[in-house]
Amino acid sequence: MKQLDNPVWSALASTHRHFALGTDTAKRYPSDFLPFVAFDPNAIKPLETLKDLGPNEDVCIIGDLPEIPSSWTVLKKLECDQMVCPDLIAVKADDTIELLKLGQEDEPEMFELINSIQPGFYKDHTADLGSYFGIRVKGKLVAMAGERIKMTGLSEVSAVCTHPDHTGKGFAAQLVSVVCKNMIAQGNIPFLHVLSSNSRAVQLYERLGFVKRRSILFCLLKINGVK
Questions:
Q1: Spatial separation of the C-alpha atoms in residues 85 and 209, rounded to whole Å
Q2: Which residues pair with 217 in a beta bridge?
Q3: Which residue, of 72, 82, 116, 222, has the greatest Cβ tally within 10 A?
Q4: What is the rounded average pLDDT of the residues 109-117?
């Protein structure tokens, strides 16, 4: 699983190559899909070759950092655990919870929910990257989860969120289970990223069979005045 050390680069060089913008040494997703930028670790100053950027755009690098161009500003570094699920421990289905496959008609609510809880990473077309599932209570979308980065043999669980009024009901466990089952049925091993400080989420993922592979950095950067 060495490709997970540089997951965005690995995805844009394999399963998600059709989304890749950039050069042979630095690539990115379209800004309305994901804010992620990646680079060839063997290249010298790879980010200086990346031109598909908007002025004052915020981007994110996952993993080790290359030399940062002077026109870029580091905004924040987030310490995360990268976890993989070699053997899913699926939770028992709860007949009182209806898991819904989310579609295009749900996207406005999906965008509102995830960005009210985890702003910045979920964009207008993020849902086009994979399958998403959700739970509604009295018609309102209150929990969701889906898939984001994909590479050969691996798929990332992402956008796991529950509205604060509905936490503690087992919604996240049910959703992550069905997302992982879907990935495994397609021949992919699930993986995910979670803030190292979010012990509650880490414990949930461990109960589902996820194990920590490594610590990994999410670095948020701003591109200053790129033309």
A1: 6
A2: 79
A3: 82
A4: 95
